[in-house]
Amino acid sequence: MRVTIAGCSFYLQASEVVALMKDVKAEPVTGESVRIGRRTYPVKQVGAVITKQDRRDFSAADVTRAMEKLGFTCTPAPAPEPAPAAEPETGAEQLWQ
Predict the structure, then answer these.
(1) Which of 24, 48, 71, 84 lies 20 to 30 Å from 94, alpha-carbon distance?
(2) Coil/strand/helix, residue 33
(3) Beta pairing class for 8-11 and 33-36
(4) Contact between residue 44 and residue 63 where contact means Cβ atoms under 8 Å apart
(5) Other C-beta atoms lying within 10 Å of the C-beta of residue 78
(6) Is residue 28 within 8 Å of 39, Cβ to Cβ?
(7) Chunked mean pLDDT (size 10), the chain, 97 residues
(8) Can you give the pLDDT at residue 90?
(9) Contacts of 53 (CB under 8 A, 6+ apart)
(10) Is the pTM of this model over 0.70?
């Protein structure tokens, strides 16, 4: 199947992606991820392996779109945690103001 990553066309099959990623140790996932076999990889790691391009040359969205087109399950980046609420001032802190 033809997929486009960073403006370049690649002809890939799901089985080829599985074979390429077979012996690659998954890096810790901090953003978007893709499930290949029993492992979950960061999409930028997968993109770098299958295209042999530098990770700065393509976006995670490019790789996610290509992996979904090939039938892989992709997961978006986790939502950032909200900032902790400010604690109310105590009486002692009010005396110094």
Answers:
(1) 84
(2) strand
(3) unpaired
(4) yes
(5) 11
(6) no
(7) 88 94 93 93 95 92 94 86 68 58
(8) 61
(9) 5, 6, 8, 47
(10) yes
* Three-state DSSP class for residue 2: strand
**With contact defined as beta carbons under 8 Å apart, do 72 and 35 qualify?**
yes
* 69 closest CA partner among 34, 37, 30: 34
Using alpha carbons, list the distances in angstroms from residue 15 to 46, 50, 76, 89.
Answer: 14, 12, 23, 60
Angle, CA of 54, 57 and 59, to the nearest 5°:
115
CB 73 within 8 A of CB 35: yes
Tokens of residue 15, six digits: 């089985």
